[in-house]
Amino acid sequence: MNDGTIFSSVQDRDKLSHLVLNSIKEAVVQGRLKPGDKLPGLADMAEEMGVGISSVREAIKMLEALEVLESKQGKGVYVCSGLSPGAINPLSLQLILIPQSTEHLVQFREMYESAFTMLAMKNATEEDLARMEKIVVELEKKTKTQGADSEDEMVFHSCVLQCTHNPYVIRTGEAMLEVFLSTIPTCGGMADDSGIARDHRKIYESIKNHDVDSLNQVLKKSFDGWGIRLSGQDFYES
To answer: CDD domains, per this entry (predicted)?
Structure first.
């Protein structure tokens, strides 16, 4: 688009606010709007896209909820410069709404988590490893006392994810972990058993020692166990 305009015109008149949203998103994706840029006024945007101001206003509200845009009192609307820790991740909502299949969930987790755990092995710092070990120790304590649950387990995997130090991997991985947390009612929590804690210690030690073979083995065991728990069985008592 080289005619000086930022937004593509909206041709289809159905669900105008959604089409306006897509036009704004396209401008961001294609670099016509960059993080920190101020958007034109509502009237100018409406004229450029050939829609009413109310459609533009509604689209902006939706993008503000997703923390893509932000309104600054008395200054206008801007493209956000970054995501806050509590920003909504629409990918996680889309994934959670997919009808759950144990086979598909296990395949998805095995493919993605194996990849980001290998990246964590490559990029983890000494501080990362110390934090990971602390989480493992807490998990071991819980399994010996009141018992840990799947949320405790996900704290460990979230730590591994952060150790990648890759914002793209972290953002998509956070969505993936939210999907797995949504399976907690199906899993029924974790057994009061040290087997799961042992596996997580082995994952930590494999990452620390850069032992690829050991990491692959323990991850495979962990994924198999999680799949069986999804099916309502107890992997560590079988």
So the answer is: WHTH_GntR (cd07377)
Output the DSSP codes for 119-188.
HHHHH--HHHHHHHHHHHHHHHHHHHTT---HHHHHHHHHHHHHTT--HHHHHHHHHHHHHHHTTHHHHT
pLDDT averaged over the chain?
83
User: What letters, b where the CB count within 10 A reaches 16 and e where it falls short, cover 166-192?
Assistant: beebeebbbbbbbbbbebeeebeebbe
Which residues, including other chains, have CB under 8 Å from residue 46's CB and lie 6 or more apart?
A: 52, 53, 55, 56
Answer whether residue 232 shows pLDDT above 70. no
Separation of alpha carbons 178 and 97, rounded Å: 12
Short-list 154, 216, 208, 144, CA closest to 181: 154
Q: Give the CATH class of 90-232.
A: mainly alpha
Q: How confident is the model at residue 85 (pLDDT cuts 50, 70, 90)?
A: low
Predicted TM-score (pTM) above 0.90? no
Give the domain 12-79 fold.
Arc Repressor Mutant, subunit A (1.10.10)
Q: Residue ranges per domain, the chain?
A: 12-79, 90-232
Mean pLDDT of 183-212: 76
Q: How much is the pLDDT for 228?
A: 80
Name the band, by pLDDT with cuts 50, 70 and 90, for residue 224. Answer: confident
